[in-house]
Amino acid sequence: MIEFTLPSLGADMDQGKLVQWKVEPGDPVKRGQIVAVIETSKAAVEVEIWHDGTVHELLVPPGETVPVGTVLATLLEPGEDAAGIKPGEPDASAAPDVQAPVAPAQAVAEVAAPAAVVPAAAFAAPAAGRARISPAARRRAEELGIVLESLTGSGPDGAVTLDDVEHAAQPAKPVDRQAEMRKAIAAAMGRSKREIPHYYLSETVPMQKAQAWLLAANESRPVTERLLMAALQLKAVALALKDFPDMNGFFADGGFRPSAAIHVGVAISLRQGGLIAPAIHDAAGKSLPQIMRDLMDLVQRARAGSLRGSEMSDPTITVTNLGEQGVEVVHGVIYPPQVALVGFGRMSERPWVENGEVRALPLVTASLAADHRVSDGHRGGLFLSAIGNFLQQPEKL
Question: Which residue among the candidates 51, 263, 281, 372 is catalytic per the annotation?
Answer without folding.
Answer: 372
